[in-house]
Structures are given as structure tokens and as C-alpha cells.
């Protein structure tokens, strides 16, 4: 039995490569795609920042709004990966790609809706978040231009989803880096050289998004040349199933967003130093989440393929091994951030008050690294199994019963960052217990094709 399990763990998929090599390949190619957008935002911020405080504040307001929409719709990527991976594991590449086609139809429809509604609500929402004056005007100008890229971004998410499902993470890497690289070049030209100001940044974004979305659409066209059975017609049954899974993932994402927005709002009420310290540690949390997300994407593709090939035992073995990878990565991150406790915060700020506030959050952040490593890895396993409803429910329970109450109690009791990060820790520990019990039960390892 032990020898059989070892063989299952070493042979993670149909290509015969050892599991560790497959996870490394998929993770390392997925990581730059995940990091591309945050890195471009930094470039965009640096370029726009030279226009002055009003333009930068307008970008901050509009960028947050736009990011919330695209983040909430990332089910087009994660949900499509889970469904395509099963079909890929069953040896039916044409149907796996067809899942991507259906997700692309959803992306176009939802993207057009976001574009239309966004144009209508841009002004009142920007006024609510901005000052109702120059900052709001700047935000509206950027947002109304950037919204034309919404359908294109969603097409890109769908394309990433089906390509990850068929374990092709090399082409999305090239596509996204090409688009973001072009945008990084065009942004300073449009903003400063041509004098288009803040809106020049949004135009550069849209041009890049046209390129990337076109590359993903051309990939479907190439697949049709080798697999003519790939259907381009909308399939309402498949679309309905995708939207059902999407609903669960949207609710799960909403749980995260509400928690972290609430945490920032409460931190701000303890003064500038507290919210600045919270922001420093939170951005580091987001950074390490990208690395752990890359491993989760690899787990998602491999588990989905195993279940599609009717390999429940293989899927369980992959889950066990990927969980160990997540634990070791979390331990390494924990040791690294503990060692850098006296150095890394100084990279972000030199303000003595902020630096004095950082330790209240820092050691919670360090302690949660192994927990996060395991939770993110198992999230990928369960997403690959299509167990989105379970992840939705446990995330919302952890948020409503753990994170949110402690955040607001910390405000009333004056606990500051200690209370906020205690809330985050409880949130992660509840999720850890839930996903470990779920994985151990084996009820997630349902084999066969995804429901139509």
C-alpha cells in the first residue's frame, strides 16, 4: 500500500513526469501571469505619479473600483480550469477547449454588461469615494476609458482558465507578458510625450488588453484547425453549469473582499500610523499569496485531470503531496519573514511611528505562513475537484464567525492591529480545519466529466 501510494505521488499525471516536476513547471509558469498585473500597476502608478497628487489620487480611486470588478469575476479563470482539466484528463481535448469557448461567451456577455453599467455609475461611485471635485473628475475620466477593456480582461481570464486546464501555462505567460510589456512602453508615451494625461494610462491599458484577448481568441482558432469538433456555438447547458460554479466563487471572493476592506477601514480609525503599518504587512501578505496561488493553480490542473481520468486514488495522492509542498513553502516563508523583521519594513517606510506599529501585525503574519501554505494548496485541490460550493460556505462562515466580529470588536475595545490580525488568524485557522477535514473525508474526489 505504501509503495502504491508512493508511485501515485511520483507519477502525478498522464504525461508521466514526476509530480514535483509537474507542480514546479505549472507553478513557475503561472506565477509571472499572476504577478504581471500587480507589477504593471506599480509602473502605472509611477508614471501617473509625475502628473501630481490629483491625478494619482484619481488613479487610486478608479483603480480600486476597476480591480474590485475584475477580481470578483475571476471565476472565469478558476472555474474554467476545474472543468477543462477534467475533460483533459479524460483525453478529450476538444471538449476541454470547448469549455473555454463557452467561458469566453460568458466573458463577452458579462464584460459588455460591466461596460454599460460602469459608464452609468462611474460618476456617482467616484463622487462617493473621491472628494466630489477634481479627484472624482480624474477618476471618472480614467474609469470610463478603462471600462472598454472589461470584456477583453474577462476574455483573458477565460483563456487562462482553459489553457491551465489542459496544462498549457507557457502560452498564457507569453501572451500576458507581451501585453503588459506593450502597455508599460505605451503608458509614459501617451501620458507624458503625447500629453494625454491620466486618460493616456487607461488607453495604454485598453490597447494591451486588445492584444492579449486577441491572442487568446487566436489560440481557440488554432485549436479548431487541429480539432474541428471544437464548437463555437453557445451551449446554454454548459454556460448554466459554469455560472452556477461562478456564483459560488463570486460569493467566496466577496467574503475575502469584505473582510480585507473592513480590516483597512478599522485600521484607519486607529490613526495614520496604524493603517500605514497594516498596509505594509498586508501588501507582503498579498505578495506571498501570489506564490502560493501559483502552487494552487498547479494542484487545480493536476487534480482535475486525475479525476477526469477516473483516478480518484491518484487525485488523493496528489492532494497529499501538494499539501506537503504548501506546508514546506509556508515554513520557508515564515522563517524568511521572521529573519527580515528588522529589515524589510524599512524598505517600505522610514516613518518611526509606522515602524513602531508594524510588529503588532508582523508576528501574526509570520506565524500564519505555514497555515496559509496548507490552506492555499488545499484550496487548489478542492477547486480542481469542482468543490466550489464547499469553499464558498466555509469561507463565508470563517468570515462571518471569525474575521469580521473580531475586526469590529477590536475597534470597540481599542485592540488596534493586534485585534485585526487576530481576526485574520482566526479566519485562516477556521479555513484550515475545514479544508483538512474535507480533504481527509475524500468526498471531494468525484470522478468523471463535469456536469453540463
Summarize the structure.
Helix content is 84%, strand content 0%.
* H/E element order: HHHHHHHHHHHHHHHHH
How many DSSP helices?
Answer: 17
Uncertain spans: 1-5, 12-16
Q: Radius of gyration, Cα only, in angstroms?
A: 22 Å
Quaternary form = single chain
Percent of residues in helices comes to over 70%
Task: Based on the model shown, name its key terms.
452 residues; mainly alpha; 17 helices; disordered N terminus
Can you walk me through this structure?
This protein is mainly alpha-helical and 452 residues long. It folds into two domains: 15-234, no CATH class; 240-452, no CATH class. Helix content is 84%, strand content 0%. The chain contains 17 helices and no strands. It has helices at 2-10, 19-49, 53-72, 75-89, 93-129, 134-146, 150-165, 170-193, 198-226, 236-268, 272-308, 312-339, 344-348, 352-367, 369-384, 388-413, 416-441. The chain is globular and about 60 Å long. Residues 1-5 and 12-16 have low confidence and may be disordered. It comes from Pseudonocardia ailaonensis. Keywords: Cell membrane, Membrane, Transmembrane, Transmembrane helix, Transport.
SSE diagram, text form:
Layout: H1 2-10, H2 19-49, H3 53-72, H4 75-89, H5 93-129, H6 134-146, H7 150-165, H8 170-193, H9 198-226, H10 236-268, H11 272-308, H12 312-339, H13 344-348, H14 352-367, H15 369-384, H16 388-413, H17 416-441
Helix pairs in contact: 1-12, 2-8, 2-11, 3-6, 4-5, 4-7, 4-10, 4-11, 5-6, 5-7, 5-10, 6-9, 7-9, 8-9, 10-11, 10-16, 11-12, 11-14, 11-15, 12-14, 12-15, 14-17, 15-17, 16-17
Amino acid at each position: 500500500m505504501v509503495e502504491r501510494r508512493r508511485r501515485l505521488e511520483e507519477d502525478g499525471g498522464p504525461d508521466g513526469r514526476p509530480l514535483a516536476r509537474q507542480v514546479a513547471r505549472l507553478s513557475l509558469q503561472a506565477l509571472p501571469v499572476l504577478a504581471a498585473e500587480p507589477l504593471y500597476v506599480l509602473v502605472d502608478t509611477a508614471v501617473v505619479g509625475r502628473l501630481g497628487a490629483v491625478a494619482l489620487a484619481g488613479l487610486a480611486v478608479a483603480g480600486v473600483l476597476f480591480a474590485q470588478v475584475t477580481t470578483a469575476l475571476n471565476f472565469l479563470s478558476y472555474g474554467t480550469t476545474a472543468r477543462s482539466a477534467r475533460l483533459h484528463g479524460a483525453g478529450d481535448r476538444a471538449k476541454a477547449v470547448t469549455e473555454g469557448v463557452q467561458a469566453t461567451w460568458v466573458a463577452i456577455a458579462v464584460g459588455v454588461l460591466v461596460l454599460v453599467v460602469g459608464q452609468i455609475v462611474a460618476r456617482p461611485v467616484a463622487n462617493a469615494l473621491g472628494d466630489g471635485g477634481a479627484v472624482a473628475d480624474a477618476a471618472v475620466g480614467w474609469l470610463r476609458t478603462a471600462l472598454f477593456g472589461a470584456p477583453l480582461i474577462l476574455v483573458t481570464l477565460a483563456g487562462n482558465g482553459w489553457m491551465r486546464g489542459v496544462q498549457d501555462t507557457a502560452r498564457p505567460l507569453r501572451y500576458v507578458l507581451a501585453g503588459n510589456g506593450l502597455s508599460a512602453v505605451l503608458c509614459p508615451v501617451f501620458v507624458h510625450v503625447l500629453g494625454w494625461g491620466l486618460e493616456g494610462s487607461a488607453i495604454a491599458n485598453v490597447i494591451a488588453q486588445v492584444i492579449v484577448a486577441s491572442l487568446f481568441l487566436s489560440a481557440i482558432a488554432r485549436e479548431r484547425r487541429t480539432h474541428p469538433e471544437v464548437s463555437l456555438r453557445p451551449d446554454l447547458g454548459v454556460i448554466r453549469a459554469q455560472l452556477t460554479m461562478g456564483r459560488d466563487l463570486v460569493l467566496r471572493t466577496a467574503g475575502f473582499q469584505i473582510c480585507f476592506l473592513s480590516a483597512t477601514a478599522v485600521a484607519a480609525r486607529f490613526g495614520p500610523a496604524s493603517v500605514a503599518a497594516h498596509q505594509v504587512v498586508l501588501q507582503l501578505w498579498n505578495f506571498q499569496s501570489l506564490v502560493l496561488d501559483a502552487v494552487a493553480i498547479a494542484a487545480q490542473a493536476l487534480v482535475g485531470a486525475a479525476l477526469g481520468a477516473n483516478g480518484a486514488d491518484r487525485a488523493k495522492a496528489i492532494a497529499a503531496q501538494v499539501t506537503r509542498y504548501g506546508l514546506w513553502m509556508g515554513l520557508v516563508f515564515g522563517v524568511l519573514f521572521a529573519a527580515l523583521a528588522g529589515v524589510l519594513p524599512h524598505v517600505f517606510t522610514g516613518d518611526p511611528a509606522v515602524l513602531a506599529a508594524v510588529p503588532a501585525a508582523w508576528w501574526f503574519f509570520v506565524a500564519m505562513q505555514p497555515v496559509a501554505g496548507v490552506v492555499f494548496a488545499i484550496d487548489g485541490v478542492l477547486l480542481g475537484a469542482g468543490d466550489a460550493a464547499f469553499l464558498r460556505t466555509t469561507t463565508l462562515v470563517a468570515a462571518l464567525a471569525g474575521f469580521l466580529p473580531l475586526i469590529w470588536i477590536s475597534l470597540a475595545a481599542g485592540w488596534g492591529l493586534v485585534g485585526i490580525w487576530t481576526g485574520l488568524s482566526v479566519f485562516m485557522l477556521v479555513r484550515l480545519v475545514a479544508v483538512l477535514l474535507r480533504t481527509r473525508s475524500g468526498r471531494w474526489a468525484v470522478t468523471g466529466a463535469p456536469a453540463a
